[in-house]
Amino acid sequence: MAGQKENGFSKSQIAELVQKRPSILLSDPEKTLLPKIEFFLQWTGVAKANVLRSIARDPTFLTRSVENQLIPIYNYLKDIIGAEKVATLVRRGSWIFNRTFAKKVIPNVDFLRALGIPNSFIELILFNFPEAIGQKHDQFREIVAEVKEMGFDPLKSTFVLAFHAPFGEGNKFLWAHCYETYTKWGWSKDDIYMAFKKHPHCMLLSETKISGVLSYLATKMGCESRIIARHPHLLFYSLEKRIIPRCSVVHLLSLKGLVKKDKSLNTILCPAVASSVEKLWFWKIAK
């Protein structure tokens, strides 16, 4: 315990370490802790407080060999995503530094490269969705094949989003929950897959978000919910900051006969905030 305190861990972090890895009480801090802390400080430039927090969250860092695992993994990642993003992964406490890296991540990256996936997409997966690329290689190949069968082009960025949406950590549950929510709103299987192909992350939204947007557009704008399947990007706009304010303006304009009631939702919601279109609407009301 004294060794952990000397290395800078707080009492709560020590308690977290002991709870997750009791064997640390029997280890020699000079051999177990210090080399790993020094590695992350010297190689990644991450502040000591962040390093200690990451180690406390994931003590498996302490089981890694600096020479045989941490340094090779760091160099591999740095060559793909750059030193700054590797440092960010360390601050996040990413599991990507674990011992299955050579058995899972590297073969999976090699497989993506063999398919001709651009390096920029591989970088995106490693940095933003590392859990998706850390699966067993056979399972990973099956997932990639399934995404390709859905019609996604590996050379387009939607392939990465489609790959992550149903198969990332915890995402299968979200996918099923979203599917159920959309069906409650009258969407068919074809509607759901059409929306998914246009914006894969529409299958990672909460029920509250989906129902909030669809309910407002249906009740206040008279829009059939299935129409949104053709424009799933509309689901990502803020209900309070964009959808309600803009639709309220259009509703008032339609009552005054200044705009058609069936005005396209894309026309209403897609222009940038404070656009000239929005200002013109308010000007018309003022007249």
Automatic annotation (TrEMBL):
Highest taxon of the lineage: Eukaryota
Coiled-coil features, chain-numbered ranges: none
Keyword annotations from UniProtKB, A to Z: Transcription, Transcription regulation, Transcription termination, Transit peptide
SMART domains: Mterf (SM00733)
GO biological process, one term: DNA-templated transcription termination
Assigned protein family: Belongs to the mTERF family.
Protein name: Mitochondrial transcription termination factor family protein
Organism, scientific name: Forsythia ovata
Taxonomic placement: Eukaryota, Viridiplantae, Streptophyta, Embryophyta, Tracheophyta
